[in-house]
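Morning. Coffee machine broken again, so started the prediction first thing and wrote up yesterday's gels while waiting. Chain of 274 residues, entered below exactly as on the submission form.
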Amino acid sequence: MRAADGSVVELTWSSRANFKPGLHVCVARDMTARKLADEALRASEERYRSLLENANDIIYSHDLQGKYLTINRAGEKITGYAQEEILRGMNITQIIVPEHVERAKRMTEQKLVDPNTQTLYEIDIFSKDGRRLTLEVNTRISFKDGKPVSVEGIARDVTERKRIEKEKSELAEQLEKQRKRLQEIVSDVPAVVWETWDAPDSPAQRMNFVSAHVEKMFGYSVEEWLSIPNFWISIIHPDDKETAITNAVETFAGRKPGSNRFRLLAKDGRASVG
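Came back before lunch.
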């Protein structure tokens, strides 16, 4: 029906006749607002479903016994199990590695005792093809009528990040061992031995190693030499700086023999030949 202002109004009609001869009673109910609300709700649900299915992280829920209730496409992609397969009755204990099952259960128990407890934690799972993956998990408890009914979670695959972190840690450990071994070798040498990274004139050049004798010779600590980029350049005698840097760059590039003679200013102001 069209209203007086020209807008279209959607109505539902109900009618009844025979109250009195010739009388016909009709009741019209304006359904426009309800229809608009329903359409808005459907649009919101579609947006939520799109976000859920296109997320890169696993978004899932399971009951308090661990049986999966929902899982998005990312869960299928990461674990290798089809959604239908997971939702047919799989339990979280079938995916989580045995030694981490108790951790997952403990986190759920903590949430049940105090829903505000932070439960961001890592667990390992086995994918369908047998690969071991590390997930970073965050969960919450879902309630119905005031009673806990399920666990909702978001899980991010951090396997690659953990691998890189481990490699960096192992490399740092190896470098530290090498540094200590080199320090032991040159500790009794009455001269300064150092090793640098990057070109001599690069703003990012750093020293990886400098022998302990450097402090006795110039007064600056090993930490100062290692922590400040291009520290050696900052203490070259002004009259020698340009030549020293040019020679160092050419030596680094392999264009001339590795011999460079210049003066360095010690912490007390003395000029020492380097």
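The chain has a mean pLDDT of 83. Going to sketch it on the whiteboard this afternoon.
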